[in-house]
């Protein structure tokens, strides 16, 4: 009989975590290149007491716990910004970013140029080309990023294209193994290798918006709060039942 | 409950987003204004169970982890330095830059500031100055009673002085560019100053070495597109509302916990 409380609590804890995930998705509804997370749950069976305490095994009770959050890598909508340094990626590829902690991967194509002329992310980390960081000269103009990631400019008064590098685009056999690091960056764990992506295309002058679907998130949120309240009510009833039982049993005439 | 705080970061971010958008709209008629955009990033994640961790003694590896995010942060408000449309004014001292470069202006403390606003005037000494009275660099003085001020694509200023029929050159307006013009620091009055992020100013001559050319009798309009701003504003407002709903959902859940077993 006591198990009900524990089962209910196991569900309430997962619901609370699920709301945390929804809240993070909603908070990032305007974050460039953000990918929503989903929660997965699983039932797990556990005996409330060890079988060696009893002659026969105790009946197993079903609890719930959150097994995983997985990243929804569905493409987000593209918004035209007309900024020559904005790129949106068509396909599953990621841009490669050089951070102090090593190579990181991002879908956030809101790029900038730093004071050394390097192509960097909004937080200032260099974006890598196929042969290292991409550096522009002070007199470069008309930066053009082609669909295959080739970056050309017009040099000074020249009218011929000068190549400044090619964006390095990578993908992963199993992108679910990427770990979100914050700052729109993903890191690859041990044994997860980035491989060059040849099919992805970049579009200059566009950014990829967050792929958070507000209708899904709101309905999920309502479902979470309703379920949570229902479980609270259920636990309340159980508690009342206990109390009534105790009161009734204690009410034995002497 | 983390959701409450994540949603709060979302509300704060959208509030800032609305501020940026409203400043763009407020400056939609400001000469040489360059619009801004708020850029957001996700905050760090709490890896409740890290992907790739050992799931059992047999060496099974977790194929996916449990990562709970902490919300959103604003990483910057980068400026879109695209060309604004030129509108003819017919005024001799109105100059628009078509292409790269900024006008160099001397501000009262003796330092330099940079602007794309080329609505110049003449002060009592005949100097070419901005609307605030700050002289354009290098200083150009228009002789008294001269007529027909002409500024060519390279910024050379020529006038017809009294008693003469041929134009006399009185100076040349220079341009300055930066490797990262988005890194300039706005100080108001349509002026920017250089920063470590913008790189050092590089002075040059218009219509050469990648600099833009000067268009006399024109002004550069703000590069704000009202339709984009209004749709962004609506999106920001809705996003704010949704974050507020998450706050109330978290509140409701905490309330139902608080009311248990009373």
UniProtKB/TrEMBL annotation, chain A:
Q: Which SUPFAM superfamilies match?
A: Flagellar hook protein flgE
Where the record annotates domain Flagellar hook protein FlgE/F/G-like D1, the positions are 88-153
Q: Which InterPro entries match?
A: Flag_bb_rod_N (IPR001444), Flagellar_basal_body_rod_CS (IPR019776), Flagellar_FlgE/F/G (IPR020013), Flg_bb/hook_C_dom (IPR010930), FlgE/F/G-like (IPR037925), FlgF (IPR012836), LlgE_F_G-like_D1 (IPR053967)
User: Which stretches make up the Flagellar basal-body/hook protein C-terminal domain?
Assistant: 203-245
- Asked whether the UniProt record includes tRNA-binding among its keywords, one would answer no
Q: Where in the cell is it found?
A: Bacterial flagellum basal body
Q: List residues of the Flagellar basal body rod protein N-terminal domain.
A: 5-35
Which coarse location class applies to the principal site listed for this UniProt protein? Answer: other
Q: Name one Pfam family in it.
A: LlgE_F_G_D1
Highest taxon in the source lineage: Bacteria
Q: Which UniProt keywords apply?
A: Bacterial flagellum, Cell projection, Cilium, Flagellum
Q: Summarize subunit and interaction data from the UniProt record for this chain.
A: The basal body constitutes a major portion of the flagellar organelle and consists of five rings (E,L,P,S, and M) mounted on a central rod. The rod consists of about 26 subunits of FlgG in the distal portion, and FlgB, FlgC and FlgF are thought to build up the proximal portion of the rod with about 6 subunits each.
Family as reported in the entry's similarity comment: Belongs to the flagella basal body rod proteins family.
Q: What is this protein called?
A: Flagellar basal-body rod protein FlgF
Lineage, highest ranks first: Bacteria, Pseudomonadati, Pseudomonadota, Alphaproteobacteria, Hyphomicrobiales
Automatic annotation (TrEMBL), chain B:
Do you know which Pfam families this protein is assigned to? Flg_bb_rod (PF00460), Flg_bbr_C (PF06429), LlgE_F_G_D1 (PF22692)
Chain ranges of the Flagellar basal-body/hook protein C-terminal domain: 215-260
- Where is the protein localized? Bacterial flagellum basal body
Q: Does the keyword Mitochondrion apply?
A: no
User: What are the record keywords, sorted?
Assistant: Bacterial flagellum, Cell projection, Cilium, Flagellum
Q: Where is the Flagellar basal body rod protein N-terminal domain?
A: 4-34
Q: Which InterPro entries match?
A: Flag_bb_rod_N, Flagellar_basal_body_rod_CS, Flagellar_FlgE/F/G, Flg_bb/hook_C_dom, FlgE/F/G-like, FlgG_G_neg, LlgE_F_G-like_D1
- In what residue span(s) does the Flagellar hook protein FlgE/F/G-like D1 domain sit? 96-159
SUPFAM superfamilies named in the record? Flagellar hook protein flgE
Quaternary structure note: The basal body constitutes a major portion of the flagellar organelle and consists of four rings (L,P,S, and M) mounted on a central rod. The rod consists of about 26 subunits of FlgG in the distal portion, and FlgB, FlgC and FlgF are thought to build up the proximal portion of the rod with about 6 subunits each.
Q: Which family does it belong to?
A: Belongs to the flagella basal body rod proteins family.
This protein is called what?
Flagellar basal-body rod protein FlgG
Gene source species: Bradyrhizobium algeriense
